[in-house]
Design goal:
single chain; 253 residues; alpha+beta; Deoxyuridine 5'-Triphosphate Nucleotidohydrolase, Chain A; 4-stranded antiparallel β-sheet; 14 strands; 24% strand
Length: 253
Amino acid sequence: MLGRKKKLKIEFVSEVKGVADMFPVLKASQYKRKWVNAAMVDYKKTRKETERQSYLVRCPGIFELFKKGYILTSWYDVSIITKKGEEGFAYKFPVEGELDNLINGNPIEGQGDNLSKWIPKRTGQINAIVKMNSPLHVIAPKGVKILFLPVPYPEHFDFESTMGILDPAVSTELNAQLHWYKEEGEVIIKAGTPLMYMLPLYDGAEDIELNTRDATEKELEFFKKVNYFHSFAFEPYRFRNKVKKLYAKYFLD
């Protein structure tokens, strides 16, 4: 009898008591988007008229993304104020000074020119990067790193996370570095707001061999069968598991 495969364990631990209780790191599936609910309601209402048409809620690429990885949220309320033509930003907390005492440092700061001036920017983006420091740390097994990305398909576009890879063996700190797109005005980030999407990576991916070539007869046969699977039903997505089994039969067995 084969033994059960041992699960890898990733832990997020907080230096500040209470943060893990109030605002733990979320599984990506726990972040519920209002626009997804609205799209689902519309789909159920119109599905009979649109059976053979493309529809967002049938897109596996988007909804598979919502099931994988983790999301870091804000552990405090903060108001961030920007003025067009002025460098940097101002901010204020509900109670000034309290959070500084908890983490023995500044819970929010700006990354200046030395870090941000060379990074390409979108139109309307301020020069500074808003760094929201967190008391959370990540502890991961050997060979596991964490890919930082913007939260996929969020509810707003006032800011988004920068991208990078964290090696916990080098640094365990989980701090959100945000590109800021509100040039003028005030944005209130409430505690619990999603800030950053995190996806575990495993050593060895860089050893995958890359090859681009013409399809073989066997592969062309597979593609034709999949085309059939997508054409014989009003709702082809109902047969995704059969496509997965077919793929395994052709390429994995």
